[in-house]
Design a protein that fits this description.
By secondary structure, the chain is mainly α. It is built from 35 helices and no strands. α19 packs antiparallel against α20.
Length: 562
């Protein structure tokens, strides 16, 4: 069994020697020339004040002025300016400051170099960050290693992050909470989760788990993201001696996202009993849990609370409220959703997409959905793949492929045409319009097809009396290894019923029994319909009689068969 051999934490906790302190002080104390110039301190203070209010360009102008007035900036000034560029995410200005720093010919210390690694990491330039790190030589400290591990982990270079972490251990550095957090993040996928579990053991041994909330949060995320292991994630949560609002919200969110909405609500109530006040992210997650369970009454109580606390205008909370009112409304109306949307002070692509989707899912408001989509793009909000998908679904429901083709043309322009959800909605739109040749073209050009892609084209063929093509694609799905779900079987049974092909229907019946769909209500209804429409009432009644849970469709299909 693999274990991590960590150096003694005492090595890293020893105070620096006086020699080290003197060396570092030399880097932060202005040069004698600067001290002699009376303009140095006033200009430096002006620069700091400008950074405090976010005026980065003014601060850079002050930096230039310092050089012009023979008061060259020191390393501290450059470091503060670089950190401000990172904080305000103005990476281009950060690179400009780096160029000026190189021109200054100052000897860079580890503080400035670590800040530069952070700058290039944040803007995704891992090669420059790596180059700076490798050029530091013996000036690398624990912050340098942590920054580099974090750089790789945050830029989808998980293996490099893990190797860097191991190299750091070999050189005798003892990880801090930031380093542990970064390497655990790198292990938050199925491929490296086993390494993450080993690191988890090391974290428990070293005491960082008890001392730092951020490490526990990252472990919760690792277990939830890698395999949906909410049991292990919750064990980590329970073991944490200290929890804050972020910890509670994270666990509630993961419960909601992974289909445990009831647990999310129970945990929300526990959080409140523990004295924590929910924030906008907590409310957003618990409202989504209410939506999942159809708990409109509880959702309305939470809606009242977010209004009272001034959070209803927040985009994140507003989207959850729009979605809840749309999906939980018993009459399918979207009036309450629209009221929430209209009351929001600002909109982004997420809020627009949520209300457009709500109108499409209502089943009766497709025209309004298209109008909202047009309003969104006229307001300079750029749609994402989900916006396009919902708009194309609305066009399909209206059987209006002309507008749909204009929507799709815009998706092509934005480079989103080949995204699965957009392509799948285009297939469905053409199929509903009876244009199966165009639907097949849309299917064929999809770079990566998923089960929804196959279901859309199979269902289209089945409903357009082209069952042979549907069955050919059914065999193709089996060859790809994607898998088949209840919707696929129901579409094929519908296709067999339309052309009276009971033999094919019986073949599908045998296949779905092997797949374990014997008691699936949707498939049983499709079987009853197929057998009754093909004239085999006895077989239809046998399926009906064996059903554990019948609905109005089951009874109607059986009655129609007689």
């Amino acid at each position: 069994m693999m274990t991590l051999s960590l150096p003694s934490p005492a090595q890293s906790l020893l105070p620096p020697s006086s020699k080290t302190l003197n060396a570092s002080r030399q880097n932060i104390i202005p040069s004698s020339d600067s001290l002699k110039n009376p303009n140095f301190e006033p200009l430096k203070n002006r620069l700091i004040r400008q950074l405090d209010v976010g005026h980065l360009r003014h601060a850079i102008s002050t930096l230039d002025l310092m050089t012009q007035q023979n008061s060259p900036p020191d390393l501290t000034t450059y470091s503060i300016l670089l950190k401000s560029c990172i904080r305000f995410r103005n990476f281009q200005l950060g690179k400009l400051v780096h160029r000026k720093l190189i021109q200054s010919r100052l000897e860079l210390d580890s503080v400035v170099l670590n800040t530069l690694i952070g700058l290039y990491s944040k803007c995704g330039d891992t090669e420059t960050a790596r180059s700076i790190f490798e050029g530091m030589g013996n000036r690398r400290d624990l912050v340098s290693w942590s920054a580099m591990v974090s750089c790789f982990a945050n830029n989808s270079m998980e293996l490099q992050a893990i190797w860097t972490f191991l190299d750091m251990l070999e050189l005798g550095f003892y990880p801090n909470e930031y380093c542990f957090t970064a390497v655990i993040r790198a292990c938050s996928n199925a491929k490296y989760s086993w390494i993450g579990e080993i690191i988890y053991g090391s974290v428990l041994k070293t005491g960082y788990f008890e001392a730092h909330v951020c490490v526990g949060c990252e472990l919760i995320d690792m277990f939830a993201k890698t395999s949906g292991d909410l049991g292990s994630a919750y064990k980590v949560f329970e073991k944490m001696p200290e929890r804050n609002l972020v910890t509670w919200t994270l666990m509630i969110t993961r419960f909601t996202q992974l289909g445990c909405a009831r647990d999310a609500i129970d945990l929300f109530l526990d959080m409140e009993l523990s004295g924590y006040a929910p924030d906008r992210f907590t409310y957003s997650s618990v409202l989504s849990a209410c939506t999942e369970l159809g708990l409109l009454a509880l959702g309305k109580q939470l809606h009242s609370r977010v209004i009272r606390f001034g959070l209803a205008l927040d985009v994140c909370v507003g989207c959850s409220l729009v979605n809840m009112h749309a999906k939980c409304a018993a009459d399918g109306l979207v009036d309450d959703s629209r009221k929430v949307f209209d009351q929001m002070s600002a909109h982004n692509v997420m809020s627009w997409t949520t209300i457009i989707t709500a109108y499409v899912q209502s089943g009766e408001c497709n025209k309004e959905a298209i109008e909202l989509f047009c309003r969104m793009i006229s307001g300079q909000i750029q749609p994402n793949q989900f916006s396009f998908s919902s708009a194309l679904k609305a066009c399909g429901n209206l059987i209006d492929p002309c507008i749909g083709e204009q929507v799709y043309g815009y998706a092509v322009k934005l480079g989103l045409a080949l995204v699965n959800c957009v392509g799948n909605s285009l297939i469905s739109m053409y199929a509903k319009s009876g244009r199966m040749e165009d639907a097949r073209k849309a299917f064929d050009i999809l770079f990566e097809k998923n089960l929804v892609s196959y279901n859309s084209i199979v269902d289209g063929y089945a409903k357009n009396m082209k069952s042979e093509e549907a069955f050919l694609l059914f065999n193709e799905i089996a060859d790809t290894g994607i898998g088949i779900d209840a919707f696929t079987f129901a579409s094929l049974l519908s296709g067999a019923a339309r052309i009276g092909a009971m033999g094919k229907g019986e073949h599908i019946h045998g296949r779905l029994l092997k797949e374990g769909y014997k008691s699936n209500q949707c498939i049983c209804n499709a079987l009853i319909s197929m057998y009754s429409r093909c004239g085999n009432i006895e077989a239809a009644f046998q399926v009906f009689d064996q059903m554990e849970d019948r609905n109005v469709i089951s009874w109607t299909s059986m009655i129609t068969g007689f």
